[in-house]
Design a protein that fits this description.
The structure is a single chain. With 303 residues, the protein is mainly β. The radius of gyration is 18 Å and the shape is globular.
Length: 303
């Protein structure tokens, strides 16, 4: 029997399960299948020249947005790439998280350059990438630190220069923060957090000034909302929405992809699917804002 609601850190598919890389066209409301595979792939980015970049098996892969075969992207000796990767705004580089650090490679692959700082032994401080400023100069990430017996108990928003440099915390809360991503004009930093939650694990969407400051809440429902992604025109926020009662952002559950205006308002459902972790972790909008990519994880008999 399929195991529902697996943890976000799962490393493979269940027996009979497939990964479907799909593109949703907003004008027509239709979906098309780009690739189906029995290997776990996650988190598509959309390049300026219409390719999709995904991670799978600890590596990065690319495929034309119109469909085709996955082709590997060289990440040197690193084989622990996770589903936190972003593209430079000019499309020349990929930044990614692996084993708690941040790295940069050319868009076509190459020797990785470490961007994150080496932390003191035993600190437990790790980096989880999510955003980059429109000028490509700063990365936004989740700074994860131990709290009590939980090695990931503190999760705050932070930044670091894309060329390397000092870390800067933008939050310092006792509740989890995640998914920081800049608006296309660089004015806002969008994110999800539990700062307004009455139940632990129930995140909503927020934004704050890009340099830090007072937060504005964007979603107010009973659902659990994660990973806000601004379309390139800066008008809409695409995000993944879990059923009420969900804790955190698990894999292998029924989810809804929703869109809300960039300044907040009434969200609308766009796609319902079986997925979760890996479906929409990173910005996957087409360069012209007409479509977005995502990954569904159905079982073969229902695919």
């Amino acid at each position: 029997m399929p195991a529902p609601g697996r943890g976000a850190g799962r490393k493979d598919l269940q027996p009979g399960q497939v990964s479907q890389l799909r593109v949703h066209d907003l004008a027509t409301g239709t979906d098309r299948l780009v690739l189906q595979t029995d290997e776990l792939i996650e988190a598509p980015n959309w390049t300026p020249d219409d390719r999709l970049v995904v991670n799978g098996g600890g590596c990065l892969w690319q495929i034309p947005a119109v469909g085709g075969e996955l082709a590997p992207i060289d990440t040197g000796e690193i084989r622990t790439v996770n589903n936190d990767h972003v593209l430079s705004p000019d499309g020349t580089a990929i930044y990614f998280s692996a084993a708690g650090h941040l790295y940069r490679i050319p868009i076509g692959g190459g020797n990785p350059v470490q961007v994150s700082n080496d932390q003191p032994d035993g600190s437990g401080y790790t980096y989880w990438l999510h955003g980059i400023t429109p000028d490509g100069g700063t990365l936004a990430y989740v700074a994860v630190e131990p709290l009590g017996d939980d090695p990931r108990g503190r999760r705050n928003l932070a930044t670091i220069p894309a060329a390397g440099g000092p870390d800067r915390l933008l939050s310092d809360g006792a509740v989890p923060f995640d998914g920081p991503e800049y608006s296309p004009d660089g004015v806002w930093l969008y994110y999800n957090s539990e700062e307004a939650a009455r139940t632990p694990g129930h995140a909503q969407l927020f934004r704050m000034p890009a340099e830090g400051g007072a937060a504005e809440q964007l979603t107010f429902d009973e659902r659990v909302n994660w990973f806000p992604h601004l379309d390139p025109q800066g008008e809409s926020v695409l995000y993944i929405s879990y059923e009420p009662g969900t804790v955190s952002h698990p894999a292998d559950v029924d989810v809804t992809l929703r869109i809300v205006p960039a300044s907040g308002g009434e969200p609308r459902d766009v796609v319902r699917l079986f997925g979760g972790q890996g479906t929409l972790n990173v910005n996957s909008w087409a360069p012209d804002s007409s479509a977005f990519a995502y990954v569904a994880y159905p079982f073969a008999e229902s695919a």
